[in-house]
Amino acid sequence: MLKKDGKDSDIRIGDLPIIRDSEIQNFCLHGTVGAGKSEVIRRLANYARQRGDMVVIYDRSGEFVKSYYDPPSIRS
Q1: Which DSSP helix (H) or strand (E) runs through 39?
Q2: Where does residue 26 rank: exposed (0-12), middle (13-18), buried (19+ CB within 10 A)?
């Protein structure tokens, strides 16, 4: 239906597109251990990186730091 109405984004969660321009809003992912929350965050971050967008991830465990933290790009 989103595609039919022209409201689908190129960003997807699984096979489902999100609403165009909603990626600038907040997302909350909730699920049990092993449900795939981190994988969804990785895919969203990769979409944003491909588009040249910036992402802020609150990462208490440091899981995403080695993959996504790039200090030189922050300074430029």
Answers
A1: helix 37-51
A2: exposed
The pair of structure tokens assigned to 51 is 């588009």
- What is the CB-side half-sphere exposure of residue 1 using CA atoms within 13 A? 0
Nearest Cα residue to 35 out of 16, 62, 14, 9 = 14
Q: What is the pLDDT of residues 1-47, one digit of tens each?
A: 666 677 777 777 777 777 777 777 777 888 999 998 888 889 888 88
Measure the CA–CA gap between 10 and 33, rounded to whole angstroms. Answer: 28
Q: What is the CA radius of gyration of the chain?
A: 14
Identify any residues that bridge with 12 across adjacent strands, giving them in sequence order.
17
